[in-house]
């Protein structure tokens, strides 16, 4: 305690310009906050402006234990701020939402989260956290990096990875339960958006994936979400832009990701870092928008690392974390008073959030240690030179013995004892509807994104044109057989290798699937069918255009049925390639390793296809069994050669003739049966189905596990020292 007292005294002396928050700040240079323990009055440090907006808030009846909706002021008019402070933008048109939302109270009690290490659950990321969130309010989980903010948010929302274990209780409207589908929304720090769609289109397709009912009803829901997030000016603009137009700014993109969850009209909304990568103006606009959203009755809980003074003034409650420990939970002004009572008053010219993080962020100790011999113009490195470990212990001990902690315990007891309405699932769209929506959306995306199939179509046409011109003018003599076999091998192998150019586009689809699946907007089977059905028209267009160019330049047999078989065979190869790329991309979820793996697989399949050495002469243990049998090149080339040469004869001299089978026997291993080429088509079809089944398994297990594990590792890195 002597060490703590000496450090506190040292901090007070170095912050001589600071005083108590009730006397040191003029209202013209600060923000407006509520009194601790009161939700009904807005106050500043000296005087309070009039409130322009009154909306649905929440209060606890004195002497009772029930929560009732009340008409309470929720935010001051930002235009009341004097010119001495940073000017704030006016509320955008459409920011006020007319529809009221019946929110829900959320209580977490003695919440502890551990992550499984090499031996056991040992790493405590969150330690005995207590808090609550009320309808119509904004509750913020704040702290430096490695403090456990995201982990606590996910624990409250019930979205922890299986490797993380949670202890404690979470109550929703006084009931210990998991929140059902549609009753809450969760927005990750980084959300995959579709750049080729407009904001309205993106939200509309999201509504179709999430909501049951008629299409006209979903249009009205989308309009409400756009108005709620103040996106009216961007509703018809492409999210990612195009070559002649820039995409949406980062602030608007963040609001689009939040609006996607609002189409379900959730009663509780969890947001991980809504101000992530936003400048001060965009952050303030985002916070004003969220404040207006909370004024409709929705319960908002989100994490934040740092905020400006104006943004800080819009918070209702703060849960301050450091190394998993709760240093404070309560209202914003009470947090300032708490730091002052602990001996760390906020200096006049410093933002409260900056001051909080400075006091509890251990990284500052390293900075001071590095620069301890350097002095600024005033002879000091910083006005804050206390040991952060001591500050953390002081703040934690002060909070545990304070009236704020007792008030929180009383509030948690009241909210958890009285049961309110049980949250119910709002229903969801059927799988058939989701497949149809994903198919149509993917068709629209693929038609607009030139990197998906249009670029591949151009590359395929150029490649087939090159191959066709190199091998043109072969004729139909016996001497042309070996060269024509080489041409068909090159066509099948090189076009299959060229399909790897579609990996980045498929990776985007997998990322989008993982994002939508985490919020239960999609599923592995739905995504698989939607992607397959939407890709078939483009793959067929590529197959028929490339086949026509190659077929006639090479001078193959001029029969329509043979041409159609050639197109069908090549179409099956493209389907197999698409499934193989999806499987590898789902396995690695990394463009570099996916491309490297696919190139290796294709090269090995080309070696085992029976061209460089006839299939029955390949070494048995590896190259014949199993490589030559799992290489789709083998069946494709064999079917195309059988399609071309079975039923033909070649003259040997003036008297003797040999069949096409005999002519090919020494160049490639084919079957003399007339049905063999259809058997090869069947094998190719089964391979395409088999790869899709493999993709389903990988999507269902690997992608979900990897995404959750990445988020768990991210939370672990951000929650441990």
Automatic annotation (TrEMBL):
What domain of life is recorded for the organism? Eukaryota
Report the SMART domains cross-referenced here: AAA
User: Per the record, what is one GO cellular component?
Assistant: membrane
Keyword Secreted set for record? no
Alphabetically, the GO molecular function entries are:
ABC-type transporter activity; ATP binding; ATP hydrolysis activity
Enumerate composition-biased segments (Low complexity): 1-28, 75-86
Segments carrying the region annotation (Disordered) are 1-30, 64-93
Q: List membrane-spanning regions.
A: 453-474, 486-507, 527-554, 566-585, 591-610, 622-641, 681-701
Primary location:
membrane
Q: Which residues form the ABC transporter domain?
A: 106-348
Q: Which SUPFAM superfamilies match?
A: P-loop containing nucleoside triphosphate hydrolases
Subcellular location as annotated: Membrane
Q: Does the keyword Flavoprotein apply?
A: no
Alphabetically list the UniProt keywords: ATP-binding, Membrane, Nucleotide-binding, Transmembrane, Transmembrane helix, Transport
Q: Its topology with respect to the membrane? A: Multi-pass membrane protein
Q: Which family does it belong to?
A: Belongs to the ABC transporter superfamily. ABCG family. Eye pigment precursor importer (TC 3.A.1.204) subfamily.
- Kindly provide the name given to this protein in its UniProt entry: ABC transporter G family member 3-like isoform X1
What is the scientific name of the source organism? Durio zibethinus (Durian)
């Amino acid at each position: 305690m002597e060490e703590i007292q000496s450090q506190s005294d040292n901090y007070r002396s170095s912050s001589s310009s600071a005083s108590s928050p009730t006397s040191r700040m003029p209202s013209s240079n600060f923000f407006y906050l509520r009194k601790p323990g009161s939700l009904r009055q807005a106050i500043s440090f000296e005087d309070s402006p009039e409130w322009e907006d009154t909306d649905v808030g929440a209060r606890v009846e004195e002497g009772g234990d029930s929560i009732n909706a009340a008409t309470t002021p929720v935010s001051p008019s930002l235009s009341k701020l004097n010119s001495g402070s940073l000017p704030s933008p006016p509320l955008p048109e459409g920011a006020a939402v007319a529809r009221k939302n019946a929110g829900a109270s959320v209580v977490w009690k003695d919440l502890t989260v551990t992550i499984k290490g090499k031996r056991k659950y040992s790493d405590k990321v969150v330690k005995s956290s207590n808090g609550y969130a009320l309808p119509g309010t904004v509750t913020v989980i704040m702290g430096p990096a490695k403090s456990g903010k995201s982990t606590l948010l996910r624990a409250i929302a019930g979205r922890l990875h299986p490797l993380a274990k949670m202890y404690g209780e979470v109550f929703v409207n006084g009931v210990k339960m998991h929140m059902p589908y549609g009753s809450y929304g969760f927005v990750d720090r980084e959300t995959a958006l579709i750049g080729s769609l407009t904001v309205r289109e993106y939200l509309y397709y999201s509504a179709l994936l999430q909501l049951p009912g008629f299409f006209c009803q979903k249009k009205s829901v989308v309009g409400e979400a756009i108005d709620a997030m103040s996106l009216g000016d961007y509703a018809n603009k492409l999210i990612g832009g195009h070559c002649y137009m820039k995409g949406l700014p980062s602030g608007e993109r963040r609001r689009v990701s939040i609006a996607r969850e609002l189409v379900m009209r959730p009663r509780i909304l969890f947001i991980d870092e809504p101000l992530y990568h936003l400048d001060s103006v965009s952050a303030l606009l985002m916070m004003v928008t969220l404040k207006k959203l909370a004024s409709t009755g929705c319960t908002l809980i989100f994490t934040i690392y740092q905020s400006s003074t104006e943004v800080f003034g819009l918070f209702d409650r703060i849960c301050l974390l450091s190394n998993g420990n709760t240093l404070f939970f309560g209202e914003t002004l009470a947090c300032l008073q708490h730091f002052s009572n602990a001996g760390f008053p906020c200096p006049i010219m410093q933002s409260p959030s900056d001051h909080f993080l400075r006091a509890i962020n251990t990284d500052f100790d390293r900075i001071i240690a590095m620069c301890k011999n350097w002095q600024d113009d005033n002879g000091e490195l910083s006005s804050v030179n206390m040991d952060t470990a001591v500050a953390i212990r002081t703040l934690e001990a002060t909070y545990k013995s304070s009236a704020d902690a007792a008030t929180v315990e009383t509030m948690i007891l009241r909210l958890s004892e009285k049961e309110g309405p049980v949250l119910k699932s709002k229903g969801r769209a059927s799988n058939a509807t989701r497949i149809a929506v994903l198919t149509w959306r993917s068709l629209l995306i693929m038609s607009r994104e030139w990197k998906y199939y249009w670029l591949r179509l151009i590359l395929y046409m150029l490649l087939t044109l090159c191959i066709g011109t190199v091998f043109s003018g072969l004729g139909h003599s016996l001497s042309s057989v070996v060269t024509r076999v080489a041409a068909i091998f090159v066509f099948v192998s090189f076009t299959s290798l060229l399909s790897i150019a579609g990996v980045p586009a498929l990776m985007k689809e997998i990322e989008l699937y993982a994002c939508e699946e985490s919020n239960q907007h999609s599923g592995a089977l739905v995504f698989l069918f939607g992607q397959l059905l939407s890709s078939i028209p483009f793959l067929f267009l590529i197959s028929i255009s490339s086949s026509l160019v190659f077929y006639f330049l090479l001078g193959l047999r001029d029969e329509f049925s043979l041409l159609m078989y050639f197109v069908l065979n090549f179409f099956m190869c493209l389907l197999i390639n698409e499934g193989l790329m999806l499987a590898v991309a789902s396995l690695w979820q990394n463009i570099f390793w996916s491309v490297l793996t696919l190139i290796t697989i294709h090269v090995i399949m080309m070696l085992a296809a029976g061209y460089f050495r006839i299939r029955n002469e390949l070494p048995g243990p590896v190259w014949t069994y199993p490589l030559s049998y799992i290489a789709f090149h083998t069946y494709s080339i064999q079917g195309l050669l059988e399609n071309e040469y079975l039923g033909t004869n070649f003259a040997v001299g003036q008297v003797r003739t040999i069949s096409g089978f005999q002519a090919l026997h020494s160049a490639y291993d084919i079957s003399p049966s007339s049905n063999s080429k259809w058997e090869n088509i069947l094998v190719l079809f089964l391979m395409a189905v088999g790869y899709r089944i493999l993709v389903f398994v990988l999507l269902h297990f690997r992608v979900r596990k990897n995404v959750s594990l990445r988020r768990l590792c991210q939370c672990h890195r951000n929650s441990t020292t």
